[in-house]
Write a structure and sequence with these properties.
Layout lengths: L6 E6 L8 H4 L3 H9 L1 E5 L11 E7 L5 H12 L1 E7 L1 H5 L11 H8 L23 E3 L6 H12 L11 H8 L4 H5 L15 H4 L16 H10 L4 H8 L9 H13 L1
Parallel strand pairs: 1-2, 1-3, 3-4, 4-5
This protein binds iron/sulfur cluster (SF4) (2 copies).
Length: about 260
């Protein structure tokens, strides 16, 4: 009798496609994976079946259009587990900067025919619209974290995420702190680990693409960055960047903006 393989789908919403590449970057592991599961929808790789019922749906991108708001509900109904991958899907991504602006006036300033564009006023995380079973942070996500999540879910085990900080990753890997030794502004003290402290390993500060870690102290980091000569506006921009709508970062950034305005 032919083995029935688990079915998975990878769906794209408003995004740059970088997180879907996490699957393609698996290399030989992807070939092994393809023997164990049926990849029924993954436009970037070939298969197209957007309405297929699946065991696990991976979602890249934020909800930015009325069509996307409708499509994510259909995917949720067709999926046993729904996993979001990347900053766009988990926190709205860089496009969520428009949540702090007037979308219509931006469109009029940028596009020749803004009336032809169908968009929402906001770009929001997938969890704002449907139940999400597991979130994988990063911009882009780490391929091995994506693979580990799938292997756990296929065994009906809840994937485990490390929520500690990039700072701790630096200590574990023996990287010298760029903030203490070079005076480089670094968001590592408040940023979720998962990248292997990539930026500090190259001698530069982290800009928080993995989003907020657990138990963050944004006031303390603000004081540190201030002591390095950054203005409130510059510090606010660091919190309100790729992960501008993530809890913790959004409040810290808006607090600094408000302080500047008062
Ligand atoms: S999280 Fe980053 S890499 Fe992933 S789709 Fe969004 S912008 Fe691209
Ligand atoms: S060090 Fe920071 S900015 Fe660099 S990849 Fe890691 S989380 Fe992203």
């Amino acid at each position: 009798m032919e083995e029935v393989k688990p079915r998975i789908a990878i769906h794209k919403f408003t995004s740059c496609d970088g997180c879907q590449l996490a699957f393609l970057h698996l290399g030989e592991d992807l070939l092994t994976l393809a023997e164990k599961v049926d990849i029924v929808h993954f436009v970037e790789m070939g298969p197209i079946n957007p309405t297929a019922k699946v065991d696990v749906a991976y979602i890249e991108g934020s909800i930015s259009t009325p069509e996307e708001a409708k499509r994510i509900r259909e995917i949720r109904a067709n999926s046993r587990y729904l996993v979001t991958i990347g900053a766009c899907a988990t926190a709205g991504g860089i496009q969520a900067l428009r949540n702090f602006a007037d979308t219509k006036s931006w469109m009029q300033a940028i596009y020749a025919t803004p009336e032809t564009i169908s968009t929402l006023d906001t770009a929001t995380a997938i969890s704002t619209h449907v139940k999400v079973d597991y979130e994988i942070y990063g911009c882009p996500v780490n391929s091995q974290q994506v693979l580990a999540s799938l292997l756990s879910l296929l065994q009906k085990v809840t994937p485990t995420a490390r929520r500690d900080k990039v700072c701790l990753e630096c200590k574990r890997l023996g990287y010298v702190c760029v903030m203490v030794t070079k005076g480089e502004p670094c968001m590592g003290p408040v940023t979720h680990t998962g990248c292997g402290a990539l930026c500090p390993s190259l001698g530069r500060g982290c800009y928080a693409c993995y989003g907020p870690a657990e138990n963050i102290n944004t006031d303390s980091l603000t004081q540190w960055l201030s002591s390095l000569g950054l203005s409130d506006a510059e510090i606010a921009r660091r919190f309100l960047f790729i992960q501008n709508s993530a809890p913790g970062f959004k409040e810290a950034g808006l607090k600094l903006q408000k302080k500047k305005a008062s």
